[in-house]
């Protein structure tokens, strides 16, 4: 018969020591895991913080406030300036309003975003005391035309300022339920060689990309050529139809309802915007001329058919 090994105090000590080492090892591993998770969380917070910008929105009207809602939700610091007093609207959106552009520029924003009307862009830009800004500040715009602000920036801004021209091809109505899938056209006109300046420009564009915008990089010239056919033509047709004072009828077709909706959408924008699309896009004049020729051609085709029918009725003898 096998006898069990007699118990000794040294065995108890050894067992206790092993248990302590195991508990200590488990605690160390748990501590390491917690520290690792904490470092990852800190890195994530730092990355999110790094992505935030101080954005000065110059022109804090309807569209400027529309952009501010999303920028504020993303955690960016917002400054606002406008000729009209929009301090209450700015406060409700978490922005600080400055009536004096000198005070605004002395806040040293990372980005100065022009959200003015097309017609007032030049005087507003000239009124900014850019000497109070940091020398590498990024200037951006959200105008519906692109060559005009591009040339204006290059003319009035010293070469040490960065420039990116953007056009969110949506507004408060089309973007009220989110920006996902809506196009954002941009052109990095002049960005400094340093990595931090390139990174700042990308962080500004990321404000649109993270909302799901379809990012379209395109030269300002190509944008205006495309926008004349897509945007200016749409506004022109809508405003021509508005002159007809169209009304809903009891027998509306889907096509007719689409025309009524087009009138509503285009005429909800100011005539100042439409006039700016015409005046500051050199492609618009050519498009109007083509539209005139197309309408004349269509009328001639219709009247020619009518004349053929009348001629047959007047001069051809009926068959007996």
From TrEMBL:
PROSITE patterns: PDH_ADH (PS51176). The keyword Transferase does not apply. GO terms for molecular function: arogenate dehydrogenase (NADP+) activity; NAD+ binding; prephenate dehydrogenase (NAD+) activity; prephenate dehydrogenase (NADP+) activity. Its EC number is 1.3.1.78. Residues 53-320 form the Prephenate/arogenate dehydrogenase domain. InterPro entries: Arogenate_DH_2 (IPR012070), NAD(P)-bd_dom_sf (IPR036291), PDH_N (IPR046826), Prephen_DH (IPR003099), TYRAAT1/2 (IPR045011), TYRAAT2_C (IPR059064). Keywords: Oxidoreductase. It comes from the Eukaryota. GO terms for biological process: tyrosine biosynthetic process. Gene3D superfamilies: NAD(P)-binding Rossmann-like Domain (3.40.50.720). This is Arogenate dehydrogenase 2, chloroplastic.
